[in-house]
Fold this sequence. Notes:
Elements: E1 2-5, H1 6-11, H2 13-21, E2 26-30, E3 33-37, H3 44-52, H4 56-75
Parallel strand pairs: 1-2
Antiparallel strand pairs: 2-3
Amino acid sequence: MKTLTITDARQNLGHWLKLAANGEEVGVIVGSDIIALRKVNVQAADYAYQEYGLSPLQVQEAEECIDAKIKAERRAKTVKEFKGDWRELRG
């Protein structure tokens, strides 16, 4: 494992991240610890749990609730459809 100080890692962070993404072991020394840089596979299926602590059933319930609110706002004409121009989002 290649180990670096925080300063060394910061000076060429992109290089070290690319090496880590390609499977090389890279660690950054933080005090008496070594923190590993590793590629992490993120799966959409567990994102809601990891970020918000939601079970699959809670995600489904939240999705249904959000869909219902969007439909209600569309019927009330209180929401505009986004057509790809970010400038339209400005108040």
